[in-house]
Design a protein that fits this description.
heterotrimer, A alpha+beta (about 200), B mainly alpha (about 575), C mainly alpha (about 55), A: about 200 residues, 2 domains, five-stranded mixed sheet, 3 helices, 10 strands, about 30% strand, B: mainly alpha, Cytochrome C Oxidase, Chain A, about 65% helix
Chain lengths: ~200, ~575, ~55
């Protein structure tokens, strides 16, 4: 029942007549595999380039040695761009985010810019598709619209040293009324930062 | 059924067996590999227990300072040391035994081992001294001791030297056997070595131009983005370097062990050649959420990653069909009932069957990772270690364990100690990994970060707790499995020598169709190497040029030790 | 059900040594595999779609 050890040369077909000898069912399987992969590729391409479920791309570069003291990350936080449109500058550093809390009104469309002055970090907002690698020297950017009231932690998802597990912040999505009240209530961002710092320490 | 042992194509017919020297050379590779796996895998469960707030690290000082030092050791020892030493040893075996001829230049292979060993020892010192707690990805500007970088570089260089030894041996065989198809297991091992040589150019450049000079103080700072691109140039083909030796066994050996034959020689070869050309140009799928890389390049690598999924789907068919053939030869019947007819009593077979089953699921989560925007859901989450514990830690590692179940007694001239113990080892690995990995995937979908001691994290919602506990339970079961494996290996090594006829044979599967009927283009290196080079240039060239031209070494990292 | 599609060629009659065997069980396993791939992959796709656009 075993194939012969050797094949006599005269039995062997000429090279150009050799075939792969593929089983017809295996051929069908190859077709199924290709169709499956093509369909998946189409689905991710449409979602990414037509429907807006897009990855971070090439944004801009910064000097990590000065980024914490000069430019937009020197004063991290949320800024209004126009009606319902905002930009957020977030500095990821060992081992905290600045700011630690981002209060946004519901429906806000926020361009989120994150960079790091020291090590690589991660920035993932729980329950959203915002997920970025933070690399010193590079600006990571995604835009997101916050459509649901609630608290959404942003967690450092890249190892950055001994207190990595303590590194997180929170997006608070509030009603427009609460947001306006907080704005006019002269609560500046540094105070909000202090509060969440105290909370984090109390929990630790 | 006759159980005779022969190479797939024994034209030339010599019955050359390993020399005493070659046995020893392979043996020392396996020895280092198994020690690394033992230490690395004993640390793994500590991480899983931490998830349930049981932090055993505090009792292990001063041996292990932290969760992260443990995690660094776990990753380096298991993913880099165990795999590389096993693979080089196993490929030495398949080259010699596949070709039935001695190594052409044994000194080259001895030199390869020596360089790898020196590298390992160099890297081990800072790792153990907590001077290289940078995890096995060592992302700049986390700064380890220079000895860690130099050591890892030497391990890679040593594997290159050994790879050259394999290639020269195959080349010599081909000169002696013109017109004969190279025996599959030997050819496949050399294809893997060739792929590895191309793939490791990335990490070599990263080490030599950036990390080593930086750690020695010759340059002040790094470009972390470029370092990542170099790293992942090597980082993804690395997983195929691990996987392909398991495929060598699944295609070329397991069918024999199961009592059957390789279903398709030509498709087995085709899938290895496909891995040679598409393993490398896919690295950006690890950098989907990176800044500094345009989306179109990420998309291209996503599509190419789908391309590298294809030979694995092909492998699924060929390997399962080979097993089904074996099972039916053994009297198996039914649409699925034939599976029971496989030799589940043989631990070497059981390990590899279970490894294959979990690999099907690992493949699915890997396909998800590679799917461009789907990666946003899972990137840097616990899903990722959940995934690669199905692939490298099960498909690869459990298969390698299965290979040692015949290869170690074969090399030692003994018999496997404790067949039943080894079976329990196989099943506990399977069950432990199912529980662990499923929980990790779920945690990832909920947003839990990877490589983080979640037991001490401040943001863990109650919703995660059940999964965290299951991670620990899986880890505990895996701990049992690792201990059983180490016991079996030790006892087998120390077992009394038996006469040659009682020593496990080398399982080399014949193919259903004679390999000489396989087209010649499936036996030639040149066209595939050219295709591999072209694809690397097209998929990486423009971005590499762009990032290198744009390089700014301005990231020195913190001026204090961060761990 | 019995599947005895394995036919042997003894290779003694001078014909090329090929054996024909229809891998019905393999096809069955792979159909299940493809169904699982689609199910699990699509479930993550749905999660992606439910978590909002990032552009």
């Amino acid at each position: 029942m075993s194939a012969p050890d050797t094949l006599e040369r005269e039995q062997e077909p000429a090279d150009e007549h050799l075939t792969m000898g593929i089983d017809p069912w295996e051929k069908n399987w190859m077709l199924v595999s290709i169709v499956l992969l093509v369909v998946f590729a189409a689905a991710i391409t449409v979602a990414g380039f037509a429907a807006g479920f897009q990855l971070p791309g090439e944004e801009s570069e910064v000097d990590p040695r000065t980024v914490a003291t000069e430019g937009p990350w020197a004063e991290p936080g949320l800024r209004e761009l126009g009606e319902g449109r905002y930009e957020a500058y977030i500095l990821a550093q060992a081992w905290s985010f600045a700011p630690r809390e981002l209060v946004v009104p519901i429906g806000a469309e926020v361009d989120i810019y994150v960079t790091s002055p020291d090590l690589q970090h991660g920035f993932k907002i729980t329950d959203t598709n915002v997920n970025m690698q933070i690399v010193p020297g590079q600006v990571s950017k995604l835009s997101f619209t916050f459509d649901e009231i609630g608290e959404f932690p942003y967690i450092c998802t890249e190892y950055c040293g001994s207190a990595h597990a303590a590194m997180f912040g929170t997006v608070k999505v509030v009603s427009q009324a609460d947001f306006d009240a907080a704005e006019s209530g002269a609560t500046d961002t540094s105070e909000a930062t202090d509060t969440s710092e105290a909370t984090a320490e109390a929990q630790g | 059924m006759t159980i005779t042992e022969r190479a797939p194509s024994t034209v030339g017919g010599s019955g050359y067996d390993l020399s005493r020297f070659e046995r020893r050379l392979i043996g020392v590779h396996l020895f280092v590999a198994i020690i690394a796996l033992g230490i690395g895998s004993l640390i793994g469960p500590l991480q899983t227990f931490e998830y349930s707030n049981v932090n055993l690290y505090q009792y292990l000082e001063p041996v292990l300072q932290s969760y992260y030092q443990g995690l660094s050791l776990h990753g380096v020892l298991n993913a880099l040391v165990w795999t590389t030493f096993f693979i080089v040893g196993f490929t030495t075996f398949t080259t010699i035994r596949g070709l039935r001829r001695p190594l052409r230049h044994p000194r080259i292979n001895v030199a390869g081992f020596a360089v790898m060993l020196i590298g390992l020892l160099m890297a081990a010192v800072p790792l153990l001294l907590d001077q290289a707690t940078v995890l096995y990805t060592f992302y700049a500007p986390l700064k380890a001791s220079w000895a860690f970088y130099v050591g890892l570089t030497l391990v890679v260089v040593g594997s290159w030297i050994s790879g050259l030894g394999f290639f020269l041996t195959l080349h010599a065989w081909r000169k002696d056997n013109p017109g004969v198809r190279s025996p599959f297991i030997a050819l496949a091992g050399v294809i893997n070595a060739a792929m590895w040589q191309i793939a490791t150019i990335g990490i070599a450049v990263q080490m030599l131009t950036m990390l080593i000079p930086w750690s020695l103080g010759l340059i002040d700072a790094t470009d972390p983005q470029l370092a990542r691109t170099y790293f992942w140039f090597t980082g993804h083909p690395l997983v195929y370097f691990w996987l392909l030796p398991a495929y060598v066994s699944w295609y070329g050996m397991l069918p024999k062990q199961a009592g059957g034959k390789l279903f398709s020689d030509s498709l087995a070869r085709l899938s290895f050649w496909m891995f040679l050309i598409v393993s490398v140009p896919v690295g950006f799928h690890h950098q989907f959420v990176d800044p500094g890389i345009p989306q179109v390049w990420k998309w291209l690598h996503a599509v190419l990653t789908y391309g590298v999924f294809f030979p694995s789907l092909l492998t699924a068919f060929t390997v399962i069909a080979s097993l089904e053939y074996a099972a039916r030869q053994r009297g198996g019947t039914g649409l699925i009932g034939w599976v029971r007819a496989l030799p589940w009593g043989d631990p070497s077979v059981t390990t590899q069957l279970l490894a294959g089953i979990l690999f099907m699921f690992g493949g699915i989560s890997g396909l998800t990772n590679a799917s461009y925007n789907l990666n946003l859901v899972v990137h840097n989450t616990a899903w990722v270690p959940g995934h690669f514990h199905l692939t490298v830690a099960t498909a690869v590692t459990l298969s390698f364990i299965g290979i040692t179940y015949w290869m170690v007694p074969h090399l030692c001239g003994t018999q496997l100690w404790g067949r039943r113990v080894a079976l329990v080892q196989a099943w506990t690995w399977f069950v432990g990994m199912v529980i662990f990995s499923n929980a990790m995937h779920m945690l990832g979908l909920l947003g839990a970060p990877r490589r983080t001691p979640l037991g001490e994290a401040l943001y863990v919602p109650d919703e995660w707790n059940g999964h965290l506990l299951r991670v620990s339970i899986g880890g505990a079961i895996l701990l049992v499995s690792v201990i059983l494996y180490l016991v079996v290996m030790y006892k087998t090594f120390r077992a009394p020598k038996v006469e040659a006829a009682l020593v496990p044979e080398v399982p080399i599967a014949e193919s259903l169709r004679h390999p000489q009927l396989t087209p010649v283009w499936l036996d030639r290196f040149k066209p595939w190497l050219i295709a591999a080079g072209l694809l690397v240039v097209l998929s990486y060239g423009p971005q590499l040029v762009d990032q290198i031209m744009d390089m700014s070494l301005n990231s020195p990292g913190p001026d204090f030790k961060v761990w | 059900m019995s599947t005895t599609e394995v036919q042997h060629d003894d290779g003694a009659d001078g014909a090329l040594p090929e054996e024909h065997f229809k891998p019905t069980g393999t096809i069955f396993v792979l159909v299940l595999f493809v169904a699982t791939i689609i199910l699990l992959w699509a479930s993550v796709y749905v999660i992606l779609l439910s978590r909002g656009v990032t552009l």
